[in-house]
Amino acid sequence: MLSKPEYEKQIAETRDERMEWWREARFGMFIHYGLYAQLGRNEWAMACENIPVEEYEKLADTFSPKEGCCREWAALAKKAGCKYMVLTTRHHEGFSLWDSKVNPYNSVNYGPHRDIVREFVDACREFGLKIGFYTSLMDWHHPDGGICAYDTEARARFTKYIRDLNEELLTNYGKIDILWYDVPAPMETWEGWDSLERNQFLRSIQPHIIINNRSRLDEDFGTPEGEIVAEERDWEACMTFNDVSWGYLDETQVIPFSYTAQRIAVMLQKCCERCGNLLLNVGPKPDGSVPEDVKEPLAKIGEWLEVNGEAVYGKLTKTSGNQNQANGVSRPSTKGNTVYMWNKIWHPVDGKMGVGGFFTAPKKISFIDGTPIDFEKKGDRIILSNLPEENPDKILGMPLIKFEFDSFPEYRFASYFPQLNKGMRREIK
Q1: What is the DSSP letter of 427?
Q2: 263-303: pLDDT as tens digits
Q3: Edge-to-edge strands of the sheet including 374-378?
Q4: 346/330 Cα distance (integer angstroms)
Q5: β-bridge pairing 84-90 and 27-31
Q6: Among the residues of 172-280, which ranges form H helices?
């Protein structure tokens, strides 16, 4: 076994090759599905409501995902423009969604008597989606799940249990692309979890896998949750669909809290601007079907991405924090020497609209479909002209304007205003 520095050096040497597809994918779908769907009150209901294990276990008998539900998820992900999916193979409740020999509390021994993970994998492959397995380190059902923090023998049993579960997942389903750990509680260090040993072993099974940072090792990518906060490393913001729950909620009552397609687009833009990914969650209904509140927004964002995907997918370029805040209603994503301005509001005045802060003149400006836009550069301003009064984006009302430069553009936000630039001011021309 390698030491921690040796291991981190080894995975760093292969990271670019392993992460290449992920860095170009930008958009994935998270699926939170388990026994908690039947309660419809949050995936943490067992803990939040102090439901005893023996009472909660009864949900396993009534768990009844319908045939084809995983295919429904994958079809929706594909339609939405997602490039990968991550499934909660076993959430904190401890119920495994596969034919586990390590954990008899599973979907083959109870409920549907089917391997839901197998169905998920098959569906992802059918629709050309990369495959991610969410795996919880915390387990409310296992007798050692709590006492492992202070009982040495319990810790040994529990860490072996976690290792063996993940060995099953990474051995029985062919090539898996992502291992997505969650909640390393109650132990507080990677040493306590044996994460160094376990992750090296799991990588020996799946050499091309990428692993997130929630086993108390940095591994391959960070995972800001519930907010889009850029990191210096590779990162992926995981977001619910409603800011209330990751698991299923009544699809009628949750509509006022659910994301619109426009809000999804804004989240994508924030991620793309700083070269991160968006992992957007869906909590299927008790029978595994897709809730109504997510269908229309995801279909709409997929339709929009068919037109505007070049601003999202592929090798994007990271910019500084206020880079290209060129006017108050647009934000960018950047690919090499091309800047895509995402216009949340379309309001040219007399056919004109300005953007500020670019020191470099673009060689061409156009709409995303290639339709050229007239412009002139006046000092640190670019004035677009002859713009249509009617919003040109008929899908979301969020048109993208493409600025093409000969080299990476030099830019400073509000460059005429020293109040915003540490006393520095560009000459007004």
Answers
A1: P
A2: 999 999 999 999 999 999 999 999 999 999 999 999 999 99
A3: 353-356, 381-385, 374-378
A4: 9
A5: parallel
A6: 190-193, 195-205, 261-273
